[in-house]
């Protein structure tokens, strides 16, 4: 890492590809900021050291059975106590890929972030795919260009705010 540069950590889980596309779009947007290092990590690969080394966060998950994905929950379980207190006040955003709702996954992330004393930099961005049948829910997802643009804008806005010291 380059001294003086800020780091944005994007942690995601994706089974059918939707949340991954959203995370990648957010990373693309964030990377437009010259003074930020973007780290895009799958939830199983992210640990406490990654959380502690970042200046801000984007958490990206599908909503499964009205909850954040289990692998995202595992990420939070593994990193919560080691990061508690040192990351107070850092900014975060959340991106949710859902069939029809997504609100509960967003609430779960917000509750965890409140416990970490993170600052919510933006309202949760929920992309609803409309998948309602078992076949549609498990099918590979393609996120539309307008939604991917929103994800890129979310990544760019958070990165710009971190670099500018707004967050």
Topology of helices and strands:
Elements: E1 6-12, H1 18-30, E2 36-42, H2 48-53, E3 56-64, E4 67-68, H3 70-83, E5 91-98, H4 103-116, E6 119-120, E7 125-128, H5 134-138, H6 145-164
Parallel strand pairs: 1-2, 1-3, 3-5, 5-6, 5-7
Antiparallel strand pairs: 3-4
Helix pairs in contact: 1-6
Structure description:
By secondary structure, this protein is of the alpha/beta class. The protein has a single domain, classed as Rossmann fold (3-Layer(aba) Sandwich), CATH 3.40.50.360. It is 43% helix and 23% strand. It has six helices and seven strands; from the N terminus they run βαβαββαβαββαα. It has helices at residues 18-30, 48-53, 70-83, 103-116, 134-138, 145-164, and strands at 6-12, 36-42, 56-64, 67-68, 91-98, 119-120, 125-128. Strands 1, 2, 3, 4, 5, 6 and 7 form a seven-stranded mixed β-sheet that branches. β5, α4 (103-116) and β6 (119-120) form a beta-alpha-beta unit. α1 (18-30) packs across α6. The relative contact order is 0.23.
Instruction: List the secondary-structure elements in sequence, H or E.
Output: EHEHEEHEHEEHH
Q: Tell me the total number of β-strands.
A: 7
- Biggest sheet: strands, sense, closure? 7 strands, mixed
Proper CATH architecture: 3-Layer(aba) Sandwich
Class from helix and strand fractions: alpha/beta
- C-alpha geometry: globular
For the terminal residues, how far apart are their CA atoms?
A: 20 Å
Helix segment count? 6
As a percent range, the share of helical residues equals 40-55%
Mean pLDDT equals 96
Given as residue ranges, the uncertain stretches (5+ residues, pLDDT < 50) are none
Q: Give the name of the CATH superfamily.
A: Flavodoxin domain
Beta fraction of the residues? 15-25%
CATH structural class: Alpha Beta
Number of domains: 1
Radius of gyration: 15 Å
Under CATH, the topology can be stated as Rossmann fold
């Amino acid at each position: 890492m380059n001294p003086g540069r800020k780091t944005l950590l994007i942690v995601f889980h994706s089974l059918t590809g939707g949340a991954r596309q959203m995370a990648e779009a957010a990373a693309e947007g964030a990377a437009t900021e010259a003074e930020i290092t973007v780290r895009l990590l799958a939830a199983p690969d992210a640990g406490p050291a990654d959380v502690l080394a970042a200046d801000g966060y984007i958490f990206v998950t599908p909503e499964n059975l009205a909850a954040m994905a289990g692998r995202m929950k595992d990420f939070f379980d593994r990193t919560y106590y080691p990061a508690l207190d040192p990351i107070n006040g850092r900014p975060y955003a959340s991106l949710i890929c859902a069939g029809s709702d997504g609100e509960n996954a967003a609430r779960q992330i917000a509750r965890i972030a409140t416990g970490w004393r993170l600052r919510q930099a933006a309202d949760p961005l929920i992309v609803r795919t409309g998948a309602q049948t078992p076949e549609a829910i498990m099918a590979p997802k393609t996120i539309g260009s307008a939604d991917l643009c929103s994800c890129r804008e979310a990544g760019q806005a958070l990165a710009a705010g971190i670099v500018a010291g707004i967050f």
